[in-house]
Specification:
single chain; Tetracycline Repressor, domain 2; mainly alpha
Length: about 190
Amino acid sequence: MVDARILHTTAALREAILRLAADRPVSTITVADVTRAAGINRATFYSHAVSPGSLLADVLTPELDRIREDDAEARRTAAARGASAEELAAITRRGIDAVVEHVVSHRDIYAKGLPDTEDASLHRLLVEHFTVSSAQHIRELPTERPTMLDDVAAGFVAQGFVGAIEAWLAGPRRSRRSLVETITLSFPSWWH
């Protein structure tokens, strides 16, 4: 059983970093800012994280991991029953929609954090997440896919996905549906 104090501290840190990062870029957030907002001391902070950026990544990563797991499960189930290309494309779209929903739910954080040249933790978080997700997806594609360097293809897709999110957040307000549609149409033909 987890100690109630640890659960309380974890929740306080989560709330503090999300609130602070929604207000300003993570590079401008100090450990003192987080400890003050969470009502903890520095030693306690450092027992949970190494920096505000790493704390923010630790808070956001489980949400992205759940999206990846749901997508992988949907693909395994679809493959087991011999899903059509249309069904697989629908799974891809649902996965993209889930990621976009995650970004939208943390819009202020990503809008301030992705272009932050002083702390690239959010950019790195998304690129790493999408690279792992893309590599996993590529490994599970049918054997008739094109011959390519899987790690390079995964990196290409991941960087493009993050670039699309960054451009959408930086531009004029546009619908999330238009972002999902644009990303979906931008994927290579072999992706589905």
